[in-house]
Amino acid sequence: MNFLSHYYFDRDTTNCYFILGTVLPDLLKNADKTIILHPEHLVHSNPNINGIIQGWNKHLLVDKYFHSAEFFLTHSHTLKNLLAPVITESPVKPFFLGHIAIELILDNLLITTNAISVSQFYDHLDDCEPDVIRDFLVFAGLKNSDVFFKFYEEFKRSRYLNTYINIEQITYALKRICMRVWRNPFTPQQEAGMTGILLNYRLGLINSFMDIYDEIGQQLDTSAK
Question: Is 179 part of any domain?
Answer without folding.
Answer: yes
